[in-house]
Design brief:
Layout (H helix, E strand, L loop, with lengths): L5 H13 L19 E3 L5 E5 L4 E5 L6 E5 L7 E6 L5 E5 L4 E5 L6 E5 L7 E6 L5 E5 L4 E5 L6 E5 L7 E6 L5 E5 L4 E5 L5 E5 L7 E6 L5 E5 L4 E5 L6 E5 L7 E6 L5 E5 L4 E5 L6 E5 L7 E6 L5 E5 L4 E5 L6 E5 L3
């Protein structure tokens, strides 16, 4: 997940002024002025964060109807969102410094404060222990929250100012995360033990990460135009170049066809990569300057993605490559 906004610039300025050691705390992308994330919900809809409107939205795959729910905390700047084991959607509030949940049946939102101030909570995913695990981009932590009690635990990452961004559960019982500024892929056990692996391409800005059907963790390298995978068994990283230069790789998700699907924000494309061959195929988004952002598999067999440049939700058929777009009211 990547973002560039006045709030994070102000936060970084404070970091640099007050804590000189935080010089590695950088803005995550020069292209993306907003950030929408998206995930499949237990109710059959797709749920997304709308940080401009300060809402959580849902879209019906059947009708394309969009409904949005206002977040109680003003200017919360919601970022990551995921389905929790308790049937709720859980999301992060970057500026609000909170973890929150929304009931898909009632739209009721409950918020929980993160202990570390100005943590810049970012991505969130369910863990094998029944908790929700999240990244703290500025405070350099990985956190977990109990859906039963709301209790939050935080774990410091060994590499300082590494900018933990995306996070995903691996097949080995660990949580795997990308260090955007640290140029590492990390894993954390549910007991809090952290191990890090250096990405071969220096300065590549590893970002979104997802579990593939092949049992590996796949991630995007925003600054090197590569899709990469890491083996949870060996820690070996393999990289594949995408055809488009300066693509602005952002989101990635496993598709129902066994491929990994990803977004190219700058190039206005959706791509897929075969885990068996490394072959990359790209599809142009119909709208110019759409800025496709995050992506998730939907219950209808499509890949759904957010388009921050034009305030839309899009979907692509893995079978045909056909793209359909829906406007967000706000």
């Amino acid at each position: 997940m990547y973002k560039q906004k006045l709030w994070i610039y102000c936060l970084i300025a404070v970091c640099l002024a007050v804590l000189p050691g935080l010089a590695g705390c950088k803005s995550k992308t020069p292209q993306d002025p907003r950030n929408f994330n998206i995930t499949a919900g237990p109710d059959g809809n797709l749920w997304f964060t709308d940080n401009r409107a300060n809402t959580i939205g849902e879209i019906s795959p059947a009708t394309g109807k969009v409904t949005e729910y206002k977040i109680p905390t003003g200017g919360a700047y919601p970022i990551g969102i995921t389905a929790g084991p308790d049937g709720n959607l859980w999301f992060t509030e970057d500026a609000g410094n909170k973890i929150a949940k929304i009931s898909p049946s009632t739209g009721k939102i409950t918020e929980y404060n993160v202990a570390t101030q100005m943590a810049a909570v970012d991505a969130i995913t369910p863990g094998p222990d029944g908790n929700l695990w999240f990244t703290e981009y500025v405070s350099n932590n990985i956190g977990s929250i109990s859906p039963a009690t709301g209790a939050i635990a935080e774990y410091s990452i060994t590499t300082g100012q590494c900018g933990p961004a995306s996070i995903a559960a691996g097949p080995d019982g660990n949580l795997w995360f990308a260090e955007f500024a640290g140029n590492n892929i990390g894993k954390i056990s549910t007991a809090g033990t952290i191990t890090e692996y250096a990405v071969p391409t220096a300065g590549c800005y590893p970002g979104a990460i997802a579990l593939g059907a092949d049992g590996n963790l796949w991630f995007v390298e925003q600054n090197s135009d590569k899709i990469a995978m890491i083996s949870p068994a060996t820690g070996t990283i393999t990289e594949y170049a995408v055809p488009t230069t300066g693509a602005g790789l952002l989101g990635i998700a496993a598709g129902p066809d066994g491929n990994l699907w990803f977004t190219e924000q700058t190039a206005d494309k959706i791509g897929k990569i075969s885990p068996s061959s490394g072959t990359v195929t790209e599809y142009d988004v119909p709208v110019t300057n759409a800025a496709p952002n995050e992506i998730a598999a939907g219950p209808d067999g499509s890949l759904w993605f957010t388009q921050t440049g034009v305030n839309q939700i899009g979907k692509i058929s893995p079978a045909t490559g056909k793209i359909t777009e829906y406007n967000i009211p706000n």
